[in-house]
Write a structure and sequence with these properties.
This protein is mainly α. It contains 8 helices and no strands.
Amino acid sequence: MSTSATTEEGFLRRWARLKSAPEQEEVAPVDAPVPVPVPVAAPPVAVEEGERLLPTLDDVARLTPESDYSAFVAKGVDKAVQRMALKKLFADPNFAAMDGLDIYIADYNKSAPLTDAMLASLKHAPGVLNRLLGEDDDKQDEVEAQHRSDDNNDDDPAADGEPGTPIQGTT
């Protein structure tokens, strides 16, 4: 089949055609290999889960930093034995070395109380923020607009809320 016919056919169609076609290559019969005798090793002793000796607190007492701790963290080991083994492992000074991130060791959830002097110095902060953000101008404009509306409503007794005066828009 030519290359142009293969590209025109597309990958999936070619794959389906080759998959559905019977194998054309005959596999040459292979001479059966001569079995090589394998030396028989002693069969491994079957150790059941219940027969395996689990570590105890006496075993923890014999641990050194070079010991293998994997038996102490295996399934089925008493939690107290596990804790004691890990406590002994991490008591090694190699695990107590600070890594340079000790600046993050402080508890930043507890804030230091503010002194009266600090609170007094913060009294000016709302005015400064209002000036910086331009909120003072907005409030002043609102106050002036309120005064103007009060001046316009001086003649209206309903605006003053005098009793017995009908409110506009009601019958």
